[in-house]
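tool=predict chain=A
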Amino acid sequence: MSPVAGTATATPTATPTVVVDVEGKVAHPGVQTLPAGSRVYEALAAAGGALPGVDATALDLARLVTDGEQLRVGIAGEPSPALGVAPSGGPPKGKRAKGGKGGTVVNLNTATLEQLESVPDVGPAMAQRILDWRAAHGRFTSVAQLQEVRGIGERKFAEMRDSVTV
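tool=predict ok
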């Protein structure tokens, strides 16, 4: 049967999604496909939730997840990228991390405003510009991309680069 002339045919619309790897002490660890704009609590729920007795309070449950990120839940000795710190592997090969003001290496793709402020030479306004850049462009693919953020020139980048990771 052919469509009647002049009638609209429903066309499926692709819904934007993000793919997140939820690992650790969750009911169903693995890759989860979620609607774009999903938050950490939704990724955790998609993985069946944290196992009984696991403290997930260190996770920022209200934070938006980004495509391709990994959330680690309840894995001792391995900080979660959701906390905004580098994985236990440390800084990229060949670089020694000085760490931020508190000695922590901050993940540019997952850090909160407060965590970014712990980076040397970063105050509240600069931290917000980094978050704004991330919201507009997506994940940082290299630390060098910080130089695309308004106000980060060569000198400021040199102060920050060993205290951040992607």
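The first strand starts at residue 17 and ends at 24. Helices lie at 40-46, 113-116, 124-137, 154-160.
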